[in-house]
């Protein structure tokens, strides 16, 4: 099924998404990769505030290339999500509603997603230049010293993703394999 969705979104809105749905996101998403996740986790352990209100928001696991003239961002493809898995349950428990990346997730992340009604989207790896066309603006909001791994606030319009894991824990990577093996 194809859906258009505003971001950030609520747990109730996330519940309408099913594994395998094609979704076009419009609104605000944030970027963070390994180093930024580590800093956010350390801040949480010290009872410090995160650089943005995570409730209802979506984090895109992406480190952009430099922007071309006249563009807000360079190539903006996803990175492997499993590198953030040790930090993800804590962020989900704070109300993060979604993540965008590529690749499989751990059982701990799946359980935290079900517990919190969150979703995991995949963006197409290798299509970073195409994905960047859906990004209207990019602003570094935290950890500027991390360069491409800094936290960015992105304004997106019709950003294309696929629901890999829905809020009930259905996993497209598993169901697609089973379906393929039946045929």
CATH architecture: Alpha-Beta Barrel
Radius of gyration: 16 Å
Largest sheet: 5 strands, mixed, barrel
Write down the overall mean pLDDT: 94
**CATH topology title:** fumarase
Number of helices, counting only DSSP H or I runs of 4 residues or more = 6
What is the highest CATH level, the class? Alpha Beta
Strand percentage: 25-35%
The CA-CA distance between the termini, in Å, is 21 Å
- SSE sequence, one letter per element: EHEHEHEHEHEEH
- Runs with pLDDT <50, length 5+? none
> Helicity level, as a percent range?
25-40%
Overall strand count: 7
Q: Can you tell me the number of structural domains?
A: 1
* Structure class: alpha/beta
Order of strands, main sheet, comes to 2-3-4-5-7
- CATH homologous superfamily label: Fe-S hydro-lyase, tartrate dehydratase beta-type, catalytic domain
Shape: globular
Protein name: Fumarate hydratase
InterPro entries: Fe-S_hydro-lyase_TtdB-typ_cat (IPR004647), Fe-S_hydroAse_TtdB_cat_sf (IPR036660)
GO molecular function: hydro-lyase activity
Keywords: Lyase
Describe this protein's structure:
This is Fumarate hydratase. The protein is an alpha/beta fold and 183 residues long. It has one domain: fumarase, CATH 3.20.130.10. Helices cover 26% and strands 27% of the residues. The protein is built from six helices and seven strands, in the order βαβαβαβαβαββα. The chain has helices at residues 11-14, 34-45, 88-93, 107-116, 128-132, 172-182; strands at 2-7, 22-31, 58-60, 98-101, 119-122, 135-142, 151-165. A five-stranded mixed beta barrel has the order 2-3-4-5-7.
